[in-house]
Amino acid sequence: MEISIVSPNGMWLTGGRLITPRGLVIGAVGIAHGRIAAIRPRAPQGARVVDVGGCYVAPGFIDVHVWGEPQRVALEAARHGTTAFLTTLGPASEAALARAVAERAHACPRGADCLGLHLEGPFLNPARGGVLPRRGMRAPTARELERLWRAAGGRVRLLTLAPELRGAREAIGWCRRHRIVVSLGHSDADAAISRRAVDAGAAAVTHAFNGMRPWHHRRPSLLDVALTDPRLIAMVIADGVHVSATALRLLLRAKGAAGVALVTDSVRGQASSWKLRRRGDAYVNQRGVLAGSGLTMIEAVRTMVRLGAASLPEAVRMASEVPARLLGLWRERGSLEVGKRADVVVFDKNFRVHCTFINGDVAYQGRM
What we know:
Structural class: alpha/beta
C-alpha cells in the first residue's frame, strides 16, 4: 500500500521495528511539531496513525562526504534515507567557496539539510592526492585558513588535512578555535606525526584505508593510528570496492560501531564532468584510479550488514549517531529519542527506503 500523509505533525508511525540507542524495539513513534514526541509500545487510542507494515524505523542518515550541487544532492539524498549532509569541495578557490555557499542557500526545501561544507583540501599531500588536482595542494597557514573561512561565510564544518605538512598542528588549533572538525587524510604521515595531530585536536580520518600509506607491520602510519586511537572517528566508504569485506570487519572490530562513520564519497553528480567511469559501486578516472563511489547511505548500511561487518543497529549507528557526534549535533540529531528532531527513515528488510521525514515533514514518500 502507499503511505498517504497530509500533515506529519501529530501522527504516529506504528507497526515498525524501531532502531534506537537501546537496540531494536517493537513500537510506535509519535511525531509532533517537527520533533519526536513519544516512543511507546503502541499509539494512543484514537491517534492518527500510519502503519509502516513491519519496516524498520531509524534515525535519518548524515553523510559528511558527498560531492555535487547541494540542490541536487538534497533531493536525491532524501530518497535514500539521508536527512543531512555536508557538501564536499576539493582544493577550492575563494570564488568556488562563495559559489558553494550560494548553492547551499538555495538547496531544496523538501530535501535533506545541507549543514555546511567539507573541504577536502587544499592542505593535502600530493603523494597521496588520488584524483584530486595536485596543483592546488599546499601547506596551511592561518592567513589562508582565515581567507577561506571568510569566503565560505563561516560555513566550513569539516576540513581534511595531511598532518605531515608544515604548519599542520597550528592549522588544527586554528580550526578548533573556529569550531571546524579536522579529519586527517590524503596523507603520507607516519604514526608519530599522526598521533601528534590527534593530540593537537584532530578528530577523524577521511576514508580510512584510502589516501594514506597501506598498513605495514613494521612501519606504522596514519592507518595504524586510525585503527587504534579511540579519539579518532574513522570515516569509511563501505562499497566493497574501496575497502574489502575483510578490512571492513577488521575496522569494526578495532574501533567498534562508536568509532566508525559511514560516508558515501559519492561523485555520481560529478562523474560526467570529471570524465569518470563506473566500476561496480565505485568510480575511476581514465587511468583507473579510484575517484569516489556511487553509493547512497542506505546502500552503505546494507553493505556493512550483508558483508557481515556489522549488525543492522550497528550499521545504522555508524550512519547516523556517529556523524552527528562528530559534528557536535548529537543533542538534536542522530538517534530516535524523545525531544530530538523528527529526522526519520523507514526502510524494509531489502533496504528499500519507503519514507523519509526531515524535521517532521515528508521529504520522500515511496510505496509500502
